Amino acid sequence: MSTVGVLLWDFDGTLGERPGMWSGALMQALDEVADGHDLERSDIAGQLSAGFPWHEHQIGHPCLNTPDLWWAHLAGILSAALKRRGVQPDTADLAARAVREIYPDPTYWRLFDDTLPVLGALSGDGWSHVLVSNHVPELDGLLAALGLRERFSTVVNSAVTGYEKPHPEAFRLALEAAGHPRRVWMIGDSWTADVRGAQASGIPAIHVRTDGSIAERQAKDLYGAAVIVAEP
Questions:
Q1: pLDDT tens digit sequence for 54-106
Q2: What is the pLDDT of residues 161-204, one digit of tens each?
Q3: Angle of the 67-84 helix axis to the 89-102 helix axis, nearest 10
Q4: What is the pLDDT of residue 142?
Q5: What phi and psi, each to the nearest 5 degrees, are found at residue 81?
Q6: Would the pTM count as exceeding 0.90?
Q7: For 97-138, what is each residue's pLDDT tens digit?
Q8: Cβ-contact 19, 12 below 8 angstroms
Q9: End-to-end CA separation in angstroms for the chain
Q10: Cα(205)–Cα(216) distance, rounded to whole angstroms?
Q11: How many Cα atoms occupy the beta-carbon half-sphere of 108 within 13 Å?
Q12: Cβ(211)–Cβ(232) under 8 Å?
């Protein structure tokens, strides 16, 4: 079957999720290295609202496009968050480094129930899929473990390219990887990164898994997104 177009997909929050996200992973690491601490995940979550590469997407981070460089940067952010909550420096550093193994562990990830059925149905209709994600360097391995990697012709990962959505270069690279198709959509759960970012690059977008969105095209789940892309 010939390809009718290309769908650009966000991953985290759109196709799958890691319950607890970064604060949960950091709490797991702290539990491992400092048994008996008195911090709660909510104490940590409030410290992780800045410093990640996607928090400064406007400048791009090609200087962090190797796994070691990327994780060294993240370890500094995570360690500083723990220190602000009173964790001793050596313990904070140890826990922050441990997150590199904990966060991408597929044991802690799950796909949404509609992910595989919708991707399969759209592939059957002739659509090709490209993943465009702000993620960790190990994303490809995580996707493979979840049975998802084979669904995508290409993965455009910010930890590899150095450009996080909504930076225009992230979408330029995605379109290039997709072969500059005549028909293309971006599907994601983030208004800023996925919807506005794609539209700023001339790509129509569908905002999914959100209530009360102001997006022109929105769907409560991926089945709804599939209906939209099927419209003439």
A1: 999 999 999 998 999 999 999 999 999 999 999 999 999 999 999 999 999 99
A2: 999 999 999 999 999 999 999 999 999 999 999 999 999 999 99
A3: 130
A4: 98
A5: -60, -45
A6: yes
A7: 999 999 999 999 999 999 999 999 999 999 999 999 999 999
A8: no
A9: 19
A10: 9
A11: 16
A12: no
Q: What are phi and psi of 174, to 5 degrees?
A: -65, -45
Instruction: Give the CA diameter of the chain.
Output: 59
Residue 128's DSSP bridge partners are: 6
Which residues are within 8 A (CB) of 70 and not within 5 positions of it... i.e. 6 or more apart? 53, 64, 136, 137, 159
Contact 139, 152 (CB under 8 A): no
Give the tokens for residue 191. Answer: 């208004």
Q: Do 102 and 29 meet the contact criterion of CB atoms below 8 Å apart?
A: yes
Q: Which amino acid is at 2?
A: S
Residue 19: both structure tokens together: 């319950």
Nearest Cα to Cα of residue 209 among 11, 76, 4: 11
Amino acid symbol at 107: T
Full DSSP string of the chain: ----EEEEE--BTTTEE-TTHHHHHHHHHHHHHSTT----HHHHHTT-SS-SGGGGTTT--GGG-SHHHHHHHHHHHHHHHHHHTT--HHHHHHHHHHHHHHTT-GGG-EE-TTHHHHHHHHHHTTEEEEEEE---TTHHHHHHHTT-GGG-SEEEEHHHHS--TTSHHHHHHHHHHHT--SSEEEEES-IIIIIIHHHHTT--EEEES-SS---SSEESSHHHHHHHHH--
Return the exposure string of 11-34: e unless at least 16 CB atoms fall within 10 Å of the residue's CB, then b: bbbbbbbbeebbbbbbbbbbeebb
Is the backbone of residue 45 left (phi > 0), alpha (psi -120 to 50) or beta? Answer: alpha
